[in-house]
């Protein structure tokens, strides 16, 4: 294909252009879900279970209904037969009875919706919701995954693991826990739904992530044709995997709007958000590695218990599957065996959170390698050097599957990036020594990781040239704050040779782009970006033939530059060419479609595998157990950075989130299953005082992906993947532990205990 | 009927007369009664700072104030920072330093910084970091935010 592809002319790909999103967001003109208002709208409030497990015996709604201004109070009985929420990425072996139902008779976690109230005003709706009383028969609760039966089991592996362990010179085995933490974006969820009885169309604002999938699910659950439902993606205050999946409210609010024939608005509050939005991460690993006398890996083994909370939500078994699929990371692992038991507990259900499965697995593997190096008596960097796949071993086909695709580690030089990161931070080791000499508990830790991105199977884009010369792009990507609007504009502008500011990107409108798969798994720049590139390329080919007719010159002698085609001293700009594509134009050949536009789909079979290194320097206050992180480095290979500033921003932001999970964030419960982290007073996200003042980044572009024309790999997750691992390694180094740290988060209490 | 109060409040220089229920938060009055939706609600319990506005020049959390408490006050919101289409120096710096990603927390950080720099034109980076630690951002890791405010402090010092 590349021979038919014209040279990029704009030079905008790779440039640090100013974000298109910034102007409106800085002026307070962004449009978030709660900013939408429709004429005559009314307000919903969800009544949630106060019990972790119970059978609903009776719901009394009479008092709530009697409150003036209340329009409706509904319970499960009103909904009739509505199927449970389906899995977005099914494997096919998900157990029955594990899917989340809408207003069920049996509640399985605190926060589960049991009824909904609609009133003229949101304050009134909240008053009324408090008047709804629910009578339960309490049922026993399971809060520790070790106490529950597994609902699903998965295995992955290859090679002769048992033989390798019996032949090993060294075997190292650790027990490690990863705490329950989650995405917690700053904007709580919100939805506005409006049903137009005149034409039977339903519109929903605020479901931003996978709008086309959500539209299809909603239409099916409501018994409507999909095209009668239109979802509008909005500005969204962060996603990180959790926001924008299909939750019970995504059915309830549109259902109420259709029933009441009034626009219905629902805005989640933070207390709801902390129990309703997907949690993530909670796993227990028993990980072991076998080494020969030279510290070369002979085999890796892991037995994992995955606490999935009360239901399988839209991600199904994806997180535990990714944990075992990605666990061997960038290493040469001759034999591997991992099993995972997925246990349902009476806690908020789990879904993905930025680098799902990899944050957990990278922590387990990289912590194991540090402990192993110490026990074997070799340098912690050396054990990795001996075991990282070398460039000549890549592409490396690994007999594993990840997200339903075969695993082919596509391009890279893992040891070189490790050396770069170590060299860049070599002075930090002296700093640690200096701090220790002055009586501080300081430590240096690092971790190597493999990421995955660019999951297909496809993404579609439209590129439309208007007679004004401006370009419109309709993409299935959605904007969760990552800057995808800017990146897609850069890609279109680069191909068309126009100013990127003349490109307007419309994301996630299901009417405009009904084939879009949305933004998740670091796929947008890879998939949507290449779809835009293909569509722009097609537009350019059509423009060239029109230009040839307009200029009376042979196509192949035309020069394309600066958004125009030239022959000698005459030229026509893209806008003029678009005007010449209007019906009745003498240049539009009879029988051809009017307009200068193209819709193209980009398809891929494999994911692409970016990789990187995290390095941390920590300084621990022995009195309080507070961990300061004065220095941090992320080195990340992403093939091609469309906008390096945005890539760096993703990395720095990811580090802050990863540090939260490593040191502070924890959804804890009492022994009745009552959530104890239900406000930002108890769920501790890092502030500017806790994160490193300066995160150093190395954005490497040495190993472009061979699987897409732009050569790009996803940049959304590499800032977080190894943060738990690097910080745990640094803290262990600081404390001088011989053993493993055992858990994340490494709370101040735990650190104080370790310090004695 | 709940008790209602007629209040006068000036927002970004424009005077408004509005009837509010006693329990209605200032955030809801601004966002929903007056249409200044740039002020965001991230927690409604005073921790995240996304709703930070200036009340008579002092930063306040709009989710922790009632509308009636703003009777007679001068309020400034993020919508009042730019001069028409021209961004203020702080807004410019946030964009230049990549101090925002999703932009949800941004109005709160901008208003906080606006008030802080007005009082402490000589602020250095460590003080700025300390002050912005009163607000939460989930996207940026705060780096760009601190750099942006530090740049503006330096530039304003230079100019004065
Ligand atoms: S919304 Fe006011 S402090 Fe969070
Ligand atoms: S930019 Fe998203 S929360 Fe701050």
Question: How would you explain this protein's 3D organization?
Answer:
The complex is a heterodimer of chains A (756) and B (160). With 756 residues, chain A is of the alpha+beta class. Chain A folds into 3 domains: 35-140 and 188-236 and 243-276, Aldehyde Oxidoreductase, domain 3; 279-454 and 606-755, Aldehyde Oxidoreductase, domain 4 (2-Layer Sandwich); 455-603, Aldehyde oxidase/xanthine dehydrogenase, molybdopterin binding domain (Aldehyde Oxidoreductase, domain 4). In chain A, 28% of the residues lie in helices and 25% in strands. Chain A contains 19 helices and 29 strands. In chain A, strands 3-5-1-12-9-10-11 form a 7-stranded mixed sheet, sandwiched between helices. A 6-stranded mixed sheet of chain A has the order 7-15-14-13-8-29, with helices on both faces. A 4-stranded mixed sheet of chain A has the order 18-26-27-28, with helices on both faces. In chain A, strand 16 (396-402) and strand 17 (405-409) form a beta hairpin. The longest helix of chain A is centred in the last third of the chain and has 28 residues, at 524-551. Chain B has 2 domains: 4-80, Ubiquitin-like (UB roll) (Roll), CATH 3.10.20; 89-159, [2Fe-2S]-binding domain (DNA polymerase, domain 1), CATH 1.10.150.120. Chain B contains 5 helices and 5 strands; from the N terminus they run ββαβββαααα. Chain B has helices spanning 26-33, 89-96, 106-119, 125-132, 143-159; strands spanning 4-11, 14-21, 52-55, 58-61, 74-76. Chain B has a 5-stranded mixed sheet, sandwiched between helices. In chain B, a hairpin with a 2-residue loop joins strand 3 (52-55) and strand 4 (58-61). In chain B, helix 2 (89-96) packs across helix 5 (143-159) and helix 4 (125-132) packs across helix 5 (143-159). The radius of gyration of chain B is 16 Å and the shape is globular. The mean pLDDT of chain B is 96. Bound molecules: FE2/S2 (inorganic) cluster (2 copies). One FE2/S2 (inorganic) cluster sits between chains B (100-105, 137-140) and A (186, 237-238, 481). One FE2/S2 (inorganic) cluster binds next to loops of chain B.
């Amino acid at each position: 294909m590349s021979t038919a592809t014209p040279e990029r002319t704009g030079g905008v790909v790779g440039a640090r252009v100013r974000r298109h999103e910034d102007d409106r967001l800085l002026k307070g003109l962004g449009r978030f879900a709660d900013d939408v208002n429709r004429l005559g709208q009314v307000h919903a409030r969800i009544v949630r279970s106060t019990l972790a497990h119970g059978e609903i015996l009776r719901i009394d709604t009479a008092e709530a209904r009697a409150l003036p201004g209340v329009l409706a109070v509904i319970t499960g009985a009103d909904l009739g037969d509505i199927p449970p929420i389906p899995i977005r990425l099914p494997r096919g072996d998900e157990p029955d009875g594990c899917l989340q139902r809408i207003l069920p008779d049996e509640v399985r976690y605190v926060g589960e919706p049991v009824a909904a109230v609609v009133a003229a005003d949101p304050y009134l709706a909240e008053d009324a919701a408090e008047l709804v009383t629910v009578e339960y028969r309490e049922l026993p609760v399971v809060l520790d995954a070790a106490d529950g039966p597994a609902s699903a089991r998965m295995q992955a592996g290859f090679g002769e693991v048992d033989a390798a362990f019996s032949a090993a010179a060294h075997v190292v085995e650790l027990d490690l826990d990863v705490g329950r933490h989650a995405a917690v974006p700053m904007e709580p969820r919100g939805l506005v739904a409006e049903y137009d009885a005149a034409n039977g169309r339903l519109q929903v604002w605020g479901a931003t992530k996978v709008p086309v999938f959500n539209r299809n699910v909603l239409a099916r659950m409501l018994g409507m044709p999909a095209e009668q439902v239109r979802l509008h993606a909005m500005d969204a205050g962060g996603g990180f995997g959790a926001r924008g999946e299909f939750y019970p409210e995504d059915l309830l609010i549109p259902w109420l709007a259709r029933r009441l024939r009034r626009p219905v608005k629902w805005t989640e509050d933070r207390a709801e958000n902390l129990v309703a939005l997907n949690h993530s991460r909670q796993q227990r690993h028993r990980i072991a590695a076998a080494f020969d006398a030279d510290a070369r890996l002979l085999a890796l083994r892991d037995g994992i218990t995955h606490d999935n909370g009360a239901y399988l939500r839209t991600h199904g078994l994806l997180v535990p599957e990714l944990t075992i699929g990605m666990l061997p990371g960038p290493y040469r692992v001759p034999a591997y065996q991992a099993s995972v038991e997925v246990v349902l507990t009476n806690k908020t259900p789990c879904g993905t959170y930025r680098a799902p499965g990899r944050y957990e697995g990278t922590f387990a593997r990289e912590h194991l390698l540090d402990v192993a190096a110490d026990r074997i008596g070799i340098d912690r960097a050396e054990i990795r050097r001996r075991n990282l796949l070398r460039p000549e071993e890549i592409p490396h086909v690994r007999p594993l599957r990840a997200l339903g695709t075969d695993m082919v580690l596509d391009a890279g030089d893992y040891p070189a990036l490790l050396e770069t990161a170590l060299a860049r931070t070599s002075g930090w080791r002296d700093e640690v020594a200096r701090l220790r000499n002055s009586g501080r508990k300081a430590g240096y830790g690092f971790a190597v990781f493999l990421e995955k991105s660019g999951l297909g199977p496809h993404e579609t884009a439209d590129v439309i040239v208007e007679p004004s010369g401006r370009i419109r792009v309709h993409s299935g990507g959605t904007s969760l704050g990552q800057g995808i609007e800017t990146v897609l504009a850069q890609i279109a502008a680069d191909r068309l040779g126009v100013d990127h500011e003349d490109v307007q990107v419309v994301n996630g409108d299901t009417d405009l782009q009904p084939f879009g798969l949305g933004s998740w798994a670091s796929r947008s720049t890879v998939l949507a970006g290449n779809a835009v590139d293909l569509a722009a390329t097609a537009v350019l080919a059509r423009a060239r033939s029109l230009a040839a007719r307009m200029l009376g010159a042979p196509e192949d002698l035309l020069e394309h530059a600066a958004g125009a085609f030239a022959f000698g001293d005459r030229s026509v700009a893209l806008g003029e060419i678009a005007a010449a594509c209007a019906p009745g134009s003498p240049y539009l050949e009879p029988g051809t479609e009017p307009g200068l536009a193209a819709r193209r789909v980009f398809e891929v079979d494999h994911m692409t595998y970016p990789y990187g290194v995290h390095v941390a320097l920590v300084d621990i206050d022995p009195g309080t157990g507070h961990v300061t992180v004065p220095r941090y480095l992320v080195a990340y290979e992403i093939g091609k950075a469309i906008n390096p500033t945005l890539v760096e921003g993703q990395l720095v932001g990811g580090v802050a989130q990863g540090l939260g999970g490593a040191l502070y964030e924890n959804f804890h419960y009492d022994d009745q299953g009552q959530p104890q982290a239900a406000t930002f007073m108890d769920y501790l996200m890092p502030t500017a005082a806790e994160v490193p003042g300066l995160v150093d980044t190395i954005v490497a572009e040495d190993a472009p992906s061979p699987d897409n024309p732009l050569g790009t790999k996803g940049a959304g997750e590499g800032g977080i993947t190894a943060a738990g691992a690097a910080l745990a390694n640094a803290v262990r180094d600081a404390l001088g532990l011989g053993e493993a740290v055992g858990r994340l988060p490494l709370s101040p209490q735990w650190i104080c205990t370790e310090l004695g | 009927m709940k008790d209602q109060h007629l209040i006068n409040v000036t927002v970004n220089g424009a005077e408004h007369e509005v009837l509010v229920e006693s329990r209605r938060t200032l955030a809801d009055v601004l966002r929903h009664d007056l249409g200044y939706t740039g002020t965001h609600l991230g927690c409604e319990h005073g921790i995240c700072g996304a709703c930070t506005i200036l009340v008579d020049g002092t930063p306040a959390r709009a989710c922790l104030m009632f509308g009636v408490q703003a009777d007679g006050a001068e309020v400034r919101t993020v919508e009042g920072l730019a001069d028409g289409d021209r961004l203020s120096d702080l807004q410019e710096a946030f964009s230049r330093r990549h101090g925002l990603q999703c932009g949800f927390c941004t109005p709160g950080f901008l208003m906080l910084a606006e008030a802080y720099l007005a009082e402490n034109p000589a602020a250095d980076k460590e003080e700025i970091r300390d002050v912005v630690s009163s607000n939460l951002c989930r996207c940026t890791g705060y780096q760009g935010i601190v750099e942006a405010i530090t740049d503006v402090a330096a530039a304003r010092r230079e100019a004065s």
